[in-house]
Amino acid sequence: MPALNNPRHERVARAIAAGQAPADACAEAGYVNAAAAARRLAADAAVLGRVCELADPSAAARAEMTLPAVTRRLMEIAGKGEAGGQAAGLSVARAAVMDAAKLNGLVVDKSVVKTEAVDARERLTRLLAREVAAQKAGQTPR
Questions:
Q1: Max intra-chain CA distance, the chain
Q2: Is the pTM of this model over 0.70?
Q3: b/e map 63-80, b = 16+ CB within 10 Å
Q4: What is the DSSP track for 40-59?
Q5: Quick one: which of 77, 78, 53 has its CA closest to 64?
Q6: In 10 A of CB 82, how many CB atoms?
Q7: What angle do CA 112, 114, 118 make, to 5 degrees?
Q8: What pLDDT digit, counting tens, does each position of 73-112 carry?
């Protein structure tokens, strides 16, 4: 992200990223009512984004992470793992390929979900079966 268009906003963002309190940063940048300016700038997405970028330069790189980029990187890892031809490398390659497949929707983890209605029906069926058996045997049902 390039520097902010407003030079005072940029000064505030740099000061906050360096660890200065927002109100102090606004006062230093020349705002008369520094506390109000700090509250207003705290809600400004451009200023917040710039502070985050300045505080953690790798954040911009993480923000650029896309599905194709992650898939490409996983396939590079798989290629390097396969190149060695040893068991550990092949295991890494297999895991990387599976991760790429899952990310791209080629593999879906499925599980069986039993609903409450089915469980209740099964319990009722068992209870009725016990009652019928008890009545046939001449006993009172429990």
A1: 95
A2: no
A3: eeeeeeeeeeebeebbee
A4: HHHT-HHHHHHHHHHH-THH
A5: 53
A6: 16
A7: 145
A8: 889 888 888 888 888 888 888 898 888 888 887 877 666 6
